[in-house]
Specification:
The complex is a heterodimer of chains A (405) and B (89). Chain A has 405 residues and is an alpha/beta fold. In chain A, 27% of the residues lie in helices and 26% in strands. Chain A has helices spanning 31-44, 76-96, 114-129, 139-145, 173-186, 230-235, 299-312, 361-374, 388-391, and strands spanning 21-27, 49-52, 68-69, 107-111, 135-137, 161-165, 169-170, 190-192, 197-203, 206-212, 215-224, 244-255, 263-266, 271-275, 280-287, 321-331, 338-341, 347-351. In chain A, strands 1, 2, 8, 9, 10, 11, 17 and 18 form an 8-stranded mixed beta sheet that branches. In chain A, strands 5-6-4-13-14-15-12-16 form an 8-stranded mixed beta sheet. In chain A, strands 3-7 form a two-stranded antiparallel sheet. Chain A is globular and about 65 Å long. The two termini of chain A are 36 Å apart. The relative contact order of chain A is 0.20. Chain B has 89 residues and is an alpha+beta fold. The chains are: A alpha/beta (405), B alpha+beta (89). The interface between A and B is medium-sized, with 24 and 26 residues.
């Protein structure tokens, strides 16, 4: 990154008032929206683009995730898009010329039951067939890699082994957003905050723009990257989507000495944890069961994940909780994303990422930008169309993707 | 933690309940007449409002009965559900 030459740091993106129209309007300036805008400009030469954000840039789920990146998914469709994303992650700091603490420290997915072991080994084999680095580790190998993990046989859910993806890891979410915003801004993309999209302008079955809190904005194409609010937006068109919005909570501990240099996930006891460079332990688990837009969830979810973490890592018992937060994730019936054209010409959908959106950020952006630019699904997005719920060709990754979504 | 009013047991903590999603969904009366799109709608598409939502809960660790509640998905506040109260008598 170029260092500022004078005393004042320059803003990473410019404040804009919206134009009357754009070639493409992206709704939502989370990671996916920013990445989509960046790839539209950088790879497809479409620079007359606005990203509209009702709050502040990257202040939704992009500021509320657990930073994990990995691609050890079972089925081909998932492996395709998440591995595409991981490969983009590996070059993203260089491409954007901005440090984002991409740290390929590896991800372990623990197996606690005979069934877990079978599923894990099967997934490792499937990963390897798809060219994804993935190994099966025995309990002893796990203990060597993560000395603070309790691998004794007496545990209620003993560690019987783990899958290990060395290329997986974490990335600093804020920096990712700022890097994408900075790069998109330099290419001429307008990033417009405090601009809530309230509906769509239509000409028959064609979407020709949006209505916003800053007035109408015309657009040849509109891409939705609005996560938990996607179905609310689509409902203004009478478009019913197979999405349910749920709170997803995460939490961090106080700053601690380095004790954990890899990411550990467990599906059976359901917790995932990593330690960021700053020293905080970052923990996450599953969604709250009920529908919610409140950006907060219920305490038992936090209680359960902390008990699971303390059972696996006894030394965590002395850590203090620093803060918890909740995002709103949109869950599809097969817990896989929807990247799709819609019944409305000029309207494109990137949604349903549920609990797994962060890791896909560059991949989702690249694939969605390509889909918008060419008005047809990117080859990796073909399985992810909205129509799969009608044809029945679901992407049945649910519960097989190393951790339940 | 939500405090949920079970119509039979009174207010209990959320952990005693299982969530059942949108209420008042009915199996198609004549399934053979549905095309694939209508089946998809029945199987997969639910209301997802930001605001009041009529939904089902089951008091699994109490009376084990299903009931219908109304809850605001923004604030998580419950309000009395007249239909449920009438059913209880």
């Amino acid at each position: 990154m170029t260092a500022p030459t004078d005393g004042e740091p320059r803003p990473l993106w410019r404040r804009r008032t919206p134009n009357a129209r754009y070639d493409v309007v992206i709704v939502g300036s989370g990671g996916h929206g920013l990445a989509t805008a960046y790839y539209l400009a950088a790879h497809h030469g479409i620079t007359n683009v606005a990203v509209l954000e009702r709050g502040w840039l990257a202040g939704g789920n992009m500021a509320r995730n657990t930073c994990i990146i990995r691609s050890n998914y079972l089925v081909d469709a998932s492996a395709g898009i998440y591995e595409h994303a991981l490969r983009l992650w590996e070059g993203l700091e260089d491409e954007l010329d901005y440090p984002m603490q991409v740290s390929q420290r590896g991800v372990l997915n623990l197996a606690h039951t005979t069934h877990d072991v079978r599923e894990s080994v099967r997934r490792v084999n499937a990963n390897q067939l798809n060219g994804i680095d993935s190994h099966w580790l025995t309990t002893d190998e796990v203990a060597k890699l993560v000395p603070i993990l309790d691998t004794s046989a007496e545990l209620r859910h003993p560690v019987l082994g783990a899958t290990y993806q060395p290329r997986a890891g974490i990335a600093r979410h804020d920096h990712v957003a700022w890097a994408l915003a900075h790069a998109a801004d330099r290419l001429g993309v307008h990033l417009i905050e405090d601009c809530e999209v309230t509906g769509f302008q239509r000409d028959g079955d064609r979407v020709i723009g949006v209505h916003t809190s800053q007035g109408p904005i015309g657009a040849d194409r509109v891409g939705l990257c609005a996560a938990g609010h996607t179905s609310v937006l689509a409902s203004t068109l009478g478009l019913r989507l197979p999405l349910q919005s749920h709170p997803l909570q995460a939490l961090v501990s106080e700053l601690l000495e380095p004790v954990l240099d890899t990411v550990v996930m467990s599906n059976t006891v359901h917790v995932y944890v990593s330690q960021v460079d700053k020293g905080e332990l970052v923990l996450g688990a599953g969604i709250d069961a009920y529908n919610g837009y409140g950006q907060r969830g219920s305490f038992p979810i936090i209680g359960n994940q902390i008990s699971a973490a303390v059972a696996l890592f006894p030394i965590f018992a002395r850590a203090h909780l620093l803060r918890t937060w909740g995002g709103i994730v949109d869950i599809s019936p097969d817990a896989s994303p929807i990247i799709s054209l819609t019944p409305f010409q000029g309207l494109y959908l990137n949604a349903g990422w549920g609990t797994g959106g962060f890791k896909a950020t560059p991949g989702a952006g690249a694939v969605f930008a390509d889909t918008i630019a060419h008005d047809r699904p990117h080859p990796l997005a073909v399985p992810y169309t909205l129509d799969r719920f009608r044809t029945g060709a679901l992407i049945d990754e649910h519960g097989a993707a190393a951790v339940a979504h | 933690m939500l405090l949920i009013a079970c119509p039979w047991c009174g207010p209990r903590e959320e952990v005693e309940f299982r969530y059942g999603g949108q209420a008042h969904l009915h199996h198609p009366t004549d399934p053979w007449t549905l095309d694939d799109a209508q089946w998809a709608e029945y199987l997969f598409t639910r209301d997802n409002p930001e605001g009041w939502f009529t939904e089902r809960w089951c008091h699994i660790h109490g009376c084990r009965q299903w009931f219908v509640a109304e809850r605001d998905t923004r604030t998580y506040e419950f309000r009395p559900n007249p239909a449920e109260e009438a059913r209880r008598g």
